[in-house]
Amino acid sequence: MAKKASSRLEWRINVPDGTSKVLEPESGVVGKIWVGLKGCMGIIVLKVWRVLENAWHIGVADPRKVIHCIKVGLALSIVSLFYYMRPLYDDFGGNAMWAVMTVVVVFEYTVGATFYKCINRVIATFLAGALGVGIHLVAEQSGDQLKPIILGISVFLFASAATFSRFIPSVKARFDYGAMIFILTFSLVSVSGYRVVELFELAHLRLSTIAIGTSLCILVTTLFCPVWAGCELHHLIHQNMEKLADSLDGCVTEYFKENGSEKDLNKKMQGYKCVLNSKAAEESMANFARWEPTHGRFNFRHPWKQYLKIGASLRNCAYCIETLNSCISSEIQAPPCLRKHFSNKCMKASSYSINVLKELVITIVKMKKSSNIDVKVAEMNFAVEELVDALKSLPTTHFIATTTGEESTKAKAEGVEGSEHPNPIMKVLPLVKVVSLMVEIATRIGGVVNAVEELARLAEFKAAKDGKPKQNQPTDKLVADH
Amino acid sequence: MAKKASSRLEWRINVPDGTSKVLEPESGVVGKIWVGLKGCMGIIVLKVWRVLENAWHIGVADPRKVIHCIKVGLALSIVSLFYYMRPLYDDFGGNAMWAVMTVVVVFEYTVGATFYKCINRVIATFLAGALGVGIHLVAEQSGDQLKPIILGISVFLFASAATFSRFIPSVKARFDYGAMIFILTFSLVSVSGYRVVELFELAHLRLSTIAIGTSLCILVTTLFCPVWAGCELHHLIHQNMEKLADSLDGCVTEYFKENGSEKDLNKKMQGYKCVLNSKAAEESMANFARWEPTHGRFNFRHPWKQYLKIGASLRNCAYCIETLNSCISSEIQAPPCLRKHFSNKCMKASSYSINVLKELVITIVKMKKSSNIDVKVAEMNFAVEELVDALKSLPTTHFIATTTGEESTKAKAEGVEGSEHPNPIMKVLPLVKVVSLMVEIATRIGGVVNAVEELARLAEFKAAKDGKPKQNQPTDKLVADH
Predict the structure, then answer these.
(1) Do residues A265 and A143 make contact, with C-beta atoms less than 8 angstroms apart?
(2) For A416-460, where are the alpha helices, taking DSSP H only?
(3) Class of domain A229-394+424-462
(4) pLDDT value at position A112?
């Protein structure tokens, strides 16, 4: 009996009335496996479903990604023709494989990335092929004994050197892919040259198939709905600028608002996080953008590096907004009467700062020098000065005495907070933080203005036509005069 | 004469004494070209020299990079043996090319990245090969007319789908390379299957050469001075933590110091910038680390994702330190007597905060639960509370009156600043900023402590042996009791 019990696992439930009930498994081992399989299948189906759902959202959010996939399929189908069409096949034979491979490896989402890979691939293949053939000829002269040794050592040396070059930042930024292709082609040529007699013929065929593959890629990527890395970078920068303005607006509104938080506001406030995290994207786009030919409003030598500087200055602002955001969620808040007192001034300063950012967005979007950016910067500085003045004039001994008196009587009457921080500095502290952050943000927006003006100078933006004539009055003077 | 002059460019110098001198070019067109060439050569030599110098510094700074290059050379030389040794060549023939290619493409700096690429390559090649052969068989059945159409459509569909999958973040993080290899192999198989009869034979040979290449890579990368992505991530995180502590120390010391800035201090202060910029590196390392087998103190299922959370909390701190850093360079500074008053308290709070960070560094380096982290956190919170109390007790009307009195008499006597901001709030403002940032930094260090404790729980760190028994007294209570 004991043996039987141990050989069969049972689930027993002790019911409160003293009896116990045995839970029978559905139908032995087969049943268990079936249940297990059903569970596994369920999980897999769920995961696949989630991935598909995710994919659908990605496709809907940016249809250009779907178009990119169609472009890849198209390029591959065209290159497959080399195999299917007999006359072409007779020319290229097995080497047509290289054209297929080139298309798969080289076709990237942006035109810049495709150009980068194409140019790198062609140049590296050519260089490595020439070097490989050269070393092969030298090795041929030195006899059958020495030949494998010379070839082996040369592969070792060149592969190591090219691998090391990939660690050098300036080489990595421009020729990382080229270095890899160099190693690949060099080892293949010097190794297969050992067997194949028609080395020059092979090199010629390979180069021409790669040329076919790369030119096909370039044609498809530039002619059908091209995605320019430069345009993407341009959009990213002014979108980030807008997000920053929205975050600043959201944060200040949230801080000084009187009712509960709105959902929309909360989402708006989080925009600065995108700015904080977009460094890597900006850098890779700027790297690819410089390979792109003239397109739209962008020249071949458009100052893409300046966009990185604008991005850095935007991140600088975002750090401050991040700190401002943490002020909002801070537990200690200034008493309502003080907040009301500062609300207008702060909102004004923030709205003038946002105006400057919005003006910069327009400058970048239109690629035209703004005629009234100086005025807007002056307005911002003036509003910030006013805010600081309000803070300066606030805690005269009289004001402190009266407000504390008012507050404490209120607090006594209602039993509310306020009595917790009986000394005035603690009351003003949260406001002082916000004001000093507003000052700092305005300073950093000044940095963004400088970066954008430098871009306008480098890229030779034209002056906006519809604007008023540019005011030559310097910003500092305007502020100092108030 | 005029014609002659215009046909020849001259450089004329007007010497002050009235005569003018014609600068003769060295020797006509040839000379000019020679000078131009010399200039070009000079620039090229200089550029190459700079790159080489740069490369030398990189090699000296991290010799493991040099070792990596030697490893790549070694792996390639070994795989070349397949060509040089006749019996092996007879087995694999031209397919040995795939082994060379695999080594070049798959060999990466870290073990994790190599594993990621190897596993992706083998699985993707196998799947795509099987699918390609299957579709080929189906196409074979449907006659010569339909065959190229079926093959072409299948290439189009699968290539598009696989390309799209690379846009899905979860797929991109783990299987990006696999998706590319899938497209490559699938197109090659379905396209070359049109010609080559021995498709199974070919698939078998290709798989086995790729297996040889990948296993060689894995052997070389793990046996000779392996660089584990997990270890790198681990080091990066605790190094960043140390840098953050140093920056905080540097900033506070710089703010309250009495003499001019030291150079060492300035360098120390900039450490937080590394923390701000290390997000991308952390993410890629965490991605690779999860492919790595058990090594050293790290299991296969080590919670690498938690390191990203620690990294995020460190960046959170770094934002605040960035703002603190900008306070230092701010033009408005608190008057010396007030700064002296706060100097000790602030230094104390910062040194206790640094203690907490250093303790966390030790926890991570030793991978042992700290026995006295709770005490250190309590000390930090206590010091911060003391700092806030000092600020609270400062601006009683009496104190303001006396200090302003003192200062203004001083200012009148010496003609120094101080009279600029006659109201007390502007004097305290810079200090209030620093104090509130110190409070915020302490709060965010609390976030780092939580993230590290979560890591200790997930990775099952053991308790430190040499420490005192863990104190169960909760942190909040200790602070509240003061």
Answers:
(1) no
(2) 424-458
(3) mainly alpha
(4) 92
Q: Highest mean pLDDT: which of A323-337, A338-352, A415-429, B299-313?
A: B299-313
Residue from B433, B438, B439 to probe the interface with A (highest A Cβ count within 10 Å)? B433
pLDDT of residue A326: 83
At residue B462, φ and ψ (nearest 5 deg) are -85, 160
The DSSP-derived string for B336-381 is: HHHHHHHHHHHHHHHHHHHHHHHHHHHHHHHTEE-SSHHHHHHHHH
Enumerate the residues of chain B whose CB falls inside 8 A of the CB of residue A424: 395
pLDDT confidence of residue A17: 55
What are the tokens at A332? 């200690």
Report the run of H or E that residue B289 belongs to, with start and end.
Answer: helix B279-289
Whole-prediction pTM value?
0.80
Give the chain B residue whose CA is nearest to the CA of A90: B195
Contact assignment for A73 to B163 by CB distance below 8 Å? yes
Summarize pLDDT for A90-138 with one digit per residue, the tens.
Answer: 655 566 778 888 899 899 999 999 999 999 999 998 999 889 888 888 8
**Residues 412-471 (B) with a CB less than 8 A from some CB of A:** 421, 423-426, 428-429, 432-433, 436-437, 440
Q: Quick one: pLDDT at residue B26?
A: 52
In chain A, where are the structural domains located? 45-223, 229-394+424-462
Name the DSSP letter for residue B20.
Answer: E
> B110 to chain A: which residues are within 8 Å by CB?
none
Best to test chain A binding among B49, B85, B91, B183 (most A CBs inside 10 Å): B183
Which amino acid is located at A425 in the chain? Answer: I
Residues in chain B where the model's pLDDT stays below 50: 1-10, 15, 23, 397-421, 467-482
Q: Which two tokens stand for residue B473?
A: 């007294």
CB B326 within 8 A of CB B343: no
Q: Is there a contact between B54 and A170 if contact means CB atoms under 8 Å apart?
A: yes
Assign A462 to helix, strand or coil. Answer: strand
**H/E stretch holding B23:** strand B20-23
Question: B449 and B311 in contact (C-beta within 8 Å)?
Answer: no
Mention every residue, 6+ apart, whose C-beta is less than 8 A from residue B480: none
* pLDDT, tens digit, 9 for 90 and up, residues B409-435: 443 334 333 334 455 666 677 777 888
Give pLDDT, residue B17: 54
Confidence of residue A6 (pLDDT cuts 50, 70, 90): very low
Q: Are strands B20-23 and B11-14 parallel, antiparallel or unpaired?
A: antiparallel
pLDDT at A474 exceeding the cut of 50: no
- At position B369, the amino acid (one-letter code) is K
CA A408 vs. chain centroid, Å, equals 51
- Cα nearest neighbour of A321 on chain B: B319
Q: Residue A449: pLDDT band by 50, 70, 90 thresholds?
A: very high
Question: What is the distance between the alpha carbons of residues B289 and B305, in angstroms, rounded to a whole number?
Answer: 10
